[in-house]
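Hi R.,

Here's the chain you asked about this morning:
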Amino acid sequence: IGMREQFDLLTDLHDLLERSVHHEAPVTLRDGHLIKSGYNEELDELVVLLRDGKKLILDLESKERAATGIAKLKIGFNRVFGYFIEVSKLQSDKVPEHYIRKQTLVNAERFITPELKEFEDKILGAEDKRVDLEYQLFLAIRAQLAENSSRLLKTAQLLAQIDFLSANSEMAHKFNYRRPEMNDGDEILIIEGRHPVIERTLPSGKFVPNDVHLDQSTDEVLIITGPNMAGKSTVLRQTALIVLMAQMGCYVPAQQAEIGIVDRIFTRVGAMDDLRRGQSTFMVEMSETANILNNATEKSLVILDEIGRGTSTYDGLSIAWAVAEDLVQKNGKGVKTLFATHYHELTELAKANKRVQNYSIAVREWQGNIIFLHKLVKGGTSRSYGIQVASLAGVPDNVVHRAEEILREIELGKFGQTADPMANRKKSARIKNHPDQLTLFAPPSDPIRLSLQEMNLDQCAPLDALNTLYALKEMLKN
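And here is the predicted structure, written out as C-alpha cells:
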C-alpha cells in the first residue's frame, strides 16, 4: 500500500480541536479561557453572565417594572443579602404575592424572587464555575484524542517520512547530488565525492572533489599522507558521510557512487580530553581504537585520523603501524580502512601487503611558498611541510627561521652536542625554505653520492668525466 493510501487526514480530530480549544489558550490549565464559545451551552451562559452581568440586571429590572407596574422598582446588591428588589413603602401594596420579603427599611421594602435568586447563584459563582467547567471539558477533549493516539502516531510517522524524502529530494536537486548504486558487494567506489557541509561554506566551484576506491582485494587500507591543512580529514569525513547518506536512502554529493552495504562505520578522528572521567587524550584515542579493533568486520568501514599522536614519536609510530597491520589482516579478510597519518614510515606497509595502497594530498611549491591542491593522488609523500604550515598560520618569522636551523642541526646530528643548545644557532639568513621531513630511520645509501666520493678528480680526463655523468644519469632513471 502506498503512502497516499495509508495517510489518515484525521479530519474528525482536527474539527474537534478547531471547534473546542482556543488557538491562544493559556499555558496553565486552571487559568480559564481554554474553550471557544459555541462549544458548550452551559459554558456560554457563564461567559455571558461574567461579561454582561450588569446589562442582565437592568433587563430583569425593566421586566419586573413592567410586570408589577411599580415605576420606581429597582434591583440592588449588598454583601449581606446579595441581590434584592427594592420597592418604596408607598408602592408596597403593588408587590406581587410571589415576592419574598427580605428586609424592611424606614422608607422601603426589599424582596427576592426565585428568578432573582437563581440569577444570583449563577453570577456569584460564575467565574469559579467557568474555570472548573473549562478544565473538565479540556480533560474530555484530551481523553478523546488519547483514544486515537495510534492514528496520530501513524500519521506523524508518515509525515516524518514525507519530510525526509522531500528534504532529500530538494537537497539533491539544489546541490547536484546523485543516486548511489547500492549492492551486497565489498567495494566502495566514489567518483568526485564532496563534503556535504564544507562545500556549502565555500564559494561555488571552490570545493575540490576527490575519488575514493576501497575493496577487499587491492585497495583495502589506504594510507593517506600529506601536510596539515591539505585536506586529509575532509576526504576521510566525506567518505564516511557519503556511505552513511547512501545507506539512509539519500542521494549523495558525488558524480557517481557504487557502495556495498556496510554493517557499521567506525571513526577515530580528532582529539578530545575527557578530564572529568580522568581520561587523557591518548587514553580516549586508545579506547576508541580498541573498540574498532575488537568489533570491526570485513563489512565495516573504518576511518582513522592520526593514530598515535598522543604519545612519544616512537611509541606512536609503533602503535599506528600495528593497528594498520591488524586492520589489513583481521580475520584473514581485513577491513576497508582510510588511514590518515603523519608517520610517513607507514607507507612501507604497501611494499609488504598488496591490499595496502599509498595516497597523499597533492601540494605544490611556488616562489618559496606551498600551495594546497586538496587533491587525493596515488603515492605517498616523504614531507610534512610542518614549518611552512606554521608560517602560513602566522607564526613569527624569527620562530620559523629558528625552527629551520634546528631542523638542519638535527638532520646533521649536531643539535644539542654542546652544553648550550643556543650555541648551534646560526647568524646567517635562511639557506633553505623547505627542509626535508625528518625520518625515524637511517636513510638508505645513495649510490650517486658514493660514486662521486670515489672519483679522483685530479686524475679524471674530460672524456672520463663525461662518461661518469652519463652513468650517473642512468642511475637516476633506475
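One quick note: The first helix runs from residue 3 to 6.

Cheers,
M.
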